[in-house]
Write a structure and sequence with these properties.
It contains three helices and three strands. It has 99 residues and is of the alpha+beta class.
Length: 99
């Protein structure tokens, strides 16, 4: 199941960056997600972190703690902002789960 989800994200992000070749970032949302009024403001304020810190893969809008911004190893698949450069850098890395 996880391999199918990974393949879906890979296909979706690859297509997004091909369709919009000048886009530096893409925001990924689950189809049933209702975003808060500050959702886009949050990404506007944190996008500089992607530009300044090459160790960050994406900026996530999901936070179980809801009171702090912190770095995680796992990407939560609710809503996140993906940098084109980091995405392209990972295209040669095999997906987990044998996909």
């Amino acid at each position: 199941r996880n391999a199918r989800i990974s393949q879906h994200y890979k296909s979706s992000l690859s297509s997004t960056f091909q369709i919009f070749p000048r886009a530096k970032y893409a925001i990924v949302l689950e189809e049933d997600l209702d975003v808060s009024p500050d959702f886009f403001g949050y990404f506007s304020q944190t996008v500089r972190l992607l530009d300044e810190d090459p160790s960050l893969y994406c900026i996530s809008a999901w936070n179980d703690q809801a009171t702090s911004i912190h770095q995680q190893i796992q990407v939560r698949s609710i809503g996140w902002k993906q940098c084109r450069g980091r995405w392209l850098d990972t295209q040669e890395i095999p997906l987990q789960g044998g996909a």
